Amino acid sequence: MAHVSRLLWEDIVQALLQSRKDEYADGRGNVIAIDVRAFAGNVDCTRTLMAPGAALYQVVKADGYGFGIERAIRLGLDAGVDGFCVGTIQEALRAKALAPAHPILLFTACPPALLAGVACQGVIVTVNSVAAYQALDGLEGARFMMEFDCGFGRFGLDHAAFDALLAREGQRTRPRCLGGYTHFGSRAGAAFDEGLRRFDGFGAMLRAAFGDDQLLMAAASHGLVWRPGLPYPGAHPGSLLYGMVPAAVAPGFAPVLRSVTSPIIQVNRIAEAQSLSVGYGSGVMLPAGGATGVFPLGWNDGLSTGAALGSVLVRGRRAPVIARTLFHSIVDLSGIDTPAIGEAVTVIGTQGGERIGLHDAADAMEIAATELHFRLAGAITRGVFGGDHES
Ligand SMILES: *Cc1c(COP(=O)(O)O)cnc(C)c1O
User: Fold this and answer.
1) HEC readout, 97-118
2) In ligand 1, which atom is closest to the CA atom of 61?
3) Which residue's CA lies nearest to atom 5 of ligand 1?
4) Distance 374 CA to ligand 1 centre (A)
5) From which residue to which does the signal peptide run (predicted)?
6) Which residues line ligand 1 (CB under 6 A)?
């Protein structure tokens, strides 16, 4: 408290009390930053993979892919997306409040009994079953989209259910069907192409029944990457927009998770060579004259629990992480000018001329970039959030 000014301390207390998503929210000093420009660039790149003039619906489920739904929606509004897709009723209502003029599509997420209430809030709901369809019966002003099962056995209407609904739909004029979608979550292959054929079959029937202006969407991240230019009036990607697909697969896209940094809170010098036994891992040999540093990010914050702990940047140099506990990581500082308490450890990001990107860190920890993104963005942003960077 000695070197924290009174004003700063009051800020910290306020932030702790209000649990604001900023740098001090849990008081440990960890900061996550997102790259606003990367998101805008990813939106532009995505449009080049879509049919000309198609609408871009940004998927903001899973609390805005971990960034917080408000933040994710603001990114989308600034980058000029045309609509948003959400995963829960709560997200739907928050999205509607933030972007009242944009279409908000609620994916299959809730029991049919709750659909009518959400639809009455102006949210486009999903009909994925006969029960969901019936729940909307006669609802004035409600709008929905159908989700089709294109062979994945996961969500959506199969042909028999769809035929039954179409027959009924001929007799009712409300609510209004806006279109249909499906989700391809895997790389292209025979099943993908067969799925697309099924989707086109559903789409043709929908258009025949309700007219050509039906919004058909089958291009999520993998559809856009593996089959660019799919001729649908809408696309609804998630991971691609946040830069979670590696550049080798999606050239031109960059991670929106720009950096994760943490302060050094302890430095230990090693006078004699010794085996360090920390956390729950096995011992690590440290040379005489070396040092270790501790930073307050651990398993609980989403960092890997496996054998591969990765490395971080300290004083612009790469340093291996040698142990990890629930709340802390220990880094081997041997051969590095010993840093001061409070100096930054970069888990993801740039320091000096060195850079560890999301994909590098994921490779080093031997997990998928998607997984690392969700672990970090999900865990850290709940408590801590730094400034958004412009570049
Ligand atoms: C999550 C989701 C998407 C976006 O998925 P990505 O593969 O990350 O682009 C699209 N559609 C549906 C139905 C989803 O659940």
Assistant:
1) HHCCCCCEEECCCCCHHHHHHH
2) 1
3) 238
4) 14
5) none
6) 59, 61, 107, 183, 185, 220-222, 236-240
Per-run averaged pLDDT (10 residues), the chain, 391 residues: 62 57 62 90 98 97 91 96 95 94 94 90 93 89 93 85 81 79 85 93 92 95 94 97 93 93 93 75 79 93 85 96 92 88 95 94 92 82 44 33
Residue 170 is predicted with a pLDDT of: 63
How many domains is the chain built from?
Answer: 2
Ligand 1, residue 244: give the atom nearest the CA: 8
Give Rg (Cα) of the chain: 24
Amino acid at site 163? D
d(CA 171, CA 71): 42
CATH label of the domain that carries residue 347? 2.40.37.10
- Pairing relationship of beta strands 215-219 and 176-181 according to DSSP bridges: parallel
Ligand 1 centroid–CA 143 distance in Å is 20
Same domain flag for 158 and 280: no
Best of 42, 107, 227, 370 to mutate for ligand 1, by most ligand atoms within 8 A of CB?
Answer: 107
Tell me the per-residue pLDDT of 189-215, one tens digit each, with 9 for 90 and over. 888 899 999 999 999 999 988 889 999
Q: Are residue 221 and residue 359 in the same domain, yes or no?
A: no
What is the separation of C-alpha 148 from the centre of its chain, rounded to a whole number of angstroms? 24
Q: 270 is in which domain, residue-wise?
A: 257-381
* Ligand 1 atom with minimal separation from the 185 CA: 7
- Separation of CA 334 and ligand 1 centre (Å): 44
Which one of 104, 183, 241, 253 would you pick to mutate in the ligand 1 pocket, going by the greatest count of ligand atoms within 8 A of its CB?
183
Per-residue model confidence as pLDDT tens digits over 61-108: 999 998 889 999 999 999 999 999 999 998 999 999 999 999 999 998
Supply the pTM of this predicted model: 0.88
Tell me how far the alpha carbon of residue 364 lies from the centroid of ligand 1, in angstroms: 26
Report H helices in 159-262.
159-169, 190-210, 221-226
**In the numeric block, which tokens belong to residue 170?**
């001929």
* Count of Cβ atoms closer than 10 Å to residue 322 Cβ: 21
